[in-house]
Amino acid sequence: MAAYTLETGAILMCPHGGKVQIVSANARVRAAGQSMALATDTFIVTGCPFHIPATPPIPSPCVIVRWIVTDLRTRVAGIQTLSRSSAGICQSAAQVPQGPVSIVTTQVQVET
């Protein structure tokens, strides 16, 4: 199934409303004027308010996204790209899975 490619301008969020910033090592291939996101790029979550229910609550915000489903056919310099059909898990600093990343918007010019 075709899906639009993720690029550094895509809007992603953690399940608790934190924003995901894409830090890409790709400076060669662009989609809609922005670097295409690669499965090996860094996806930093900021502003996640999640706390583990306890007394008192324990802060456990999402800090990073790890991708579990990437594009199978599209690569940049041999590295798999990401698209709207990709699936990622947000993780805390202790690498505890916190839930799926939400892909809110992507560019609409390049499909995988």
- Content of β-strand: 35-45%
Q: Total number of β-strand segments? A: 13
Helices and strands, in order, run as: EEEEEEEEEEEEE
Discrete helix count: 0
Distance between the termini: 8 Å
Helix/strand-derived category reads mainly beta
Most strands sheet: 4 strands, antiparallel
Rg to the nearest angstrom?
Answer: 15 Å
Question: How many domains make up the coordinates?
Answer: 1
Mean pLDDT score, rounded? Answer: 91
**Strand numbers in spatial order across the main sheet:** 5-2-1-13
Uncertain regions: pLDDT < 50 for 5+ in a row? Answer: none
Coarse shape: elongated
Please state the oligomeric state of the protein chains shown: single chain
Determine the fraction of residues in helical runs and give it as a percent range. Answer: under 10%
Describe this structure in words.
This protein is an all-beta fold and 112 residues long. It has one domain. The protein is 0% helix and 39% strand. The strands form 5 sheets. Strands 5-2-1-13 form a 4-stranded antiparallel beta sheet, with no helix packed on it. A 3-stranded antiparallel beta sheet has the order 8-11-12, with no helix packed on it. A hairpin with a 2-residue loop joins strand 3 and strand 4. The termini are close together. The mean pLDDT is 91.
